[in-house]
Backbone:
């Protein structure tokens, strides 16, 4: 995997496979504390503690076609390579929370990547799940900025109209892409200002 | 407050989509399934998915269901895409990058002609 966003897609697919009804993907870039935190929370079938431990082992899988499962171990490794930490908390019947934290400025920290594509992909592929996406940025001065997307209103409004009708697709993609772009622009302009201040 | 598109706008877009859909309803059920296991994602399934959605948007193709499946045990062939047209048998494609995805959408989904060179026979 080349991006944290791709790992998030992979982990969210696990959540969807675990019969979740509600899934939250939460990304927090905290430049003030130099942490990047990426988290997927679901209310799916959950795992007991043995299994929650096992899935972190690359040679464990529930799949019958092969006997390795790499998704979670790879995400864990990516976090640990960047002086981060990884946690997986799960409760049978309640759900699972997977969280990877990275040192934001670490040279081996994977790029965050294309979050909007990840969001759009899971939203389209699992229309029956209630999705919430949070992308928060704490700038170097401690100010916070955020993008929030909750598909509930959108889906009520759409009724039985499919998300993959071209006009709807354009609308939803625009909503996600523009929201994230705008946030990135705000934060970048702040960074830029910071640099200028330092030079003067 | 970011310029989030308003719900009023969504209502208008929905009405438009509904009218267009009724005008040219696609015969039967059309499904495009992208494999999204860890192997698929690592091989570029998200770009494949993006390309499929992009085609739907730019060519204004109505009535296609786009969905996902997990690993089907052919990881070396990823990204894998399956196409189902009505009650015809499912066609499985391997090594579907963004470019091949466009070809499948145009040739197979729109015109009913499978893209032979990428079909996986199992």
Residues:
């Amino acid at each position: 995997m080349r991006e944290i966003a791709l790992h998030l897609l992979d982990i969210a697919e696990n959540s969807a496979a675990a019969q979740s009804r509600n899934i939250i993907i939460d990304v927090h870039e905290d430049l003030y504390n130099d942490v990047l935190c990426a988290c997927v929370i679901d209310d799916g079938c959950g795992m007991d503690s043995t299994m929650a431990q096992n899935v972190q082992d690359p040679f464990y899988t529930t799949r019958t076609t092969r006997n390795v499962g790499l998704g979670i171990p790879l995400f864990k490794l990516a976090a640990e390579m960047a002086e981060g930490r990884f946690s997986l908390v799960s409760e049978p019947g309640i759900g699972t929370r997977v969280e990877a934290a990275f040192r934001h400025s670490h040279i081996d920290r994977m790029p965050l990547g294309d979050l909007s594509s990840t969001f759009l992909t899971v939203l389209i592929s699992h229309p029956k799940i209630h999705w919430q996406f949070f992308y928060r940025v704490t700038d170097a001065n401690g100010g916070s900025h955020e993008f929030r997307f909750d598909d509930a209103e959108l889906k009520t409004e759409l009724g039985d109209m499919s998300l993959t009708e071209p006009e709807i697709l354009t609308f939803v993609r625009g909503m996600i892409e523009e929201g994230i772009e705008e946030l990135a622009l705000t934060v970048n302009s702040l960074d830029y200002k910071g640099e200028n201040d330092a030079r003067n | 407050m970011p310029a989030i598109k308003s719900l009023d706008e969504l209502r208008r877009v929905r009405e438009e989509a509904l009218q267009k859909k009724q005008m040219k309803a696609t015969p039967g059920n059309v499904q495009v399934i992208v494999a999204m296991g860890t192997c698929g994602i690592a091989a570029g399934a998200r770009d494949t998915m993006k390309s499929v959605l992009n085609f739907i948007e730019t060519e204004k193709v109505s009535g296609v269901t786009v969905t996902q499946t997990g690993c089907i045990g052919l990881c070396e062939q990823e990204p894998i895409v399956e196409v189902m047209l009505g009650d015809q048998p499912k066609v499985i494609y391997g090594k579907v990058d963004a470019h091949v995805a466009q070809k499948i959408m145009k040739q197979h989904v729109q015109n009913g002609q499978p893209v032979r060179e990428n079909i996986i026979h199992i």
